[in-house]
Every structure is written in C-alpha cells, then in structure tokens.
Write a structure and sequence with these properties.
By secondary structure, the protein is mainly α. The protein has a domain of about 25 residues. Helix content is about 40%, strand content about 0%. It is extended, with a radius of gyration of 59 Å.
Length: about 220
C-alpha cells in the first residue's frame, strides 16, 4: 500500500471497514467461526415460553359475536347538568313590561348651536341679509391674484405708434397677398350634390335583396 492509500485508509470514511477487519481478527484468535458472528438482522433468539394453544373455530366465532354485540350498543350520553338560576317568572307575566320597554321614548332635542351642524347648514341669519359690506371687505373677498394685478387701461381703436412707423419688407409684402385659387364654373347649388353612378340607377334588385331590405318586425 502506497503513502496515499494509507492516508485514505486511516480517514473516518473507512472506520467501518477497519472495525470489521479487527472483529474478524479477534474471532479467529478465539476460535470462533465466521458463521457464528452476531447479525443484527437475524434478531435475538426466541426466549423459551409457553406455546400458544390454537383456538377452535367455534371459539373464534363466539369472540367475534361478543365483540360485535359490544360495539353495536349505543354510546352513553352525558347530558349537561341543570343550572340553578334561582327564582324566575313566566313569560306571560313579563310580556306587558316587555311591550312597554320596546316602544320608543319621546325625547326633546334642543337645536344645536354649532355652526358646522348639518341641521344648521344652509340657514342664513336675518342680520346677514341686511348687512352691507364695506369696500375693504369686498376687496378682501376677491382672490389674492386679482388683488395684486394692475388693470391695464385699453382704449378701443388705438394703434401702437411703432406699428405706424414700421416699414414692410418685400417678403412680408409677398406673404400678405392671398393665394390665387381656381374659380369653379358651377357655383350655384346643385339639385343632386352627391352624384349617383348611372349603373345604380339601372340596377334591378332581386327578390332576396328586397326581402333583406325590409325592416325586421320586433315585438
């Protein structure tokens, strides 16, 4: 065996082979044969005991009938114990009181003073209808962007003085002229603005097409 083989043989993977080899050496030294080695798969030897007597067919049937009769009996019921609730009255004596309690009670609810209450929404106070807002209140009522903007005074019909001095270039003058368009000879309203092909005027519809052209009667 070379050096590498010895190293691998001494590793933990060969522990079982080494133990088995050592056991065989001890067995030979004691004079034990290979057939007498203990084998776990064979199991321990049966301990001597009383031999079981075979039952007859009638005894087996009797045991089966007894087992069936025992299993066929109903299960025992264990009802709950009655709870002693003390003195109690019958339903007939309690019925008038129950009917009285089931009716809704009349309650007086005073009007809420909260301005955000849903019942007070939409109501306007009489003094608010007679109030006249001041100029400052009207100014604050507008959004802030309108208050900061300055109104530009625009005079209708006025022209910017720079536009009066401006000199038009030849290209601007050329672009300002409208494009000439082809004049149509037939400018009057036509009797049939959408033309119809002459083949459609001579077409004779078949019986099937006339049947399909009729609307469906729906009930």
């Amino acid at each position: 065996m070379d050096k590498r083989g010895k190293v691998s043989y001494n590793s933990p993977y060969y522990e079982y082979k080494r133990a088995k080899k050592a056991y065989k050496k001890r067995a030979k030294s004691r004079g034990r044969s290979k057939s007498k080695e203990p084998d776990k798969k064979r199991g321990a030897s049966k301990s001597p005991g009383k031999s079981k007597t075979k039952k007859s067919k009638e005894e087996k049937l009797k045991e089966v009938f007894e087992w069936c009769a025992n299993r066929a009996q109903p299960k025992k019921l264990f009802p709950p114990e009655k709870i002693n609730r003390g003195k109690h009255a019958e339903l007939g004596t309690l019925e008038p009181r129950l009917l009285k309690l089931s009716k809704a009670r009349w309650l007086y609810v005073s009007p809420s003073q909260d301005s955000m209450n849903i019942n007070n929404l939409g109501k306007v106070k009489p003094n608010a209808l007679k109030y006249k807002p001041t100029f400052r209140v009207l100014e604050l009522a507008q959004p802030s962007r309108f208050r900061t903007m300055k109104e530009e005074i625009v005079e209708p019909g006025t022209v910017d003085p720079m536009a009066l001095i401006a000199v038009i270039s030849p290209r601007v003058k050329e672009l300002s002229v409208p494009k000439p368009r082809a004049t149509s000879t037939d400018t009057d309203y036509r009797e049939f603005p959408i033309p119809i092909s002459p083949g459609a005027l001579k077409y004779v519809a078949t019986a099937r097409i006339q049947e399909l052209a009729k609307p469906i009667d729906r009930k």
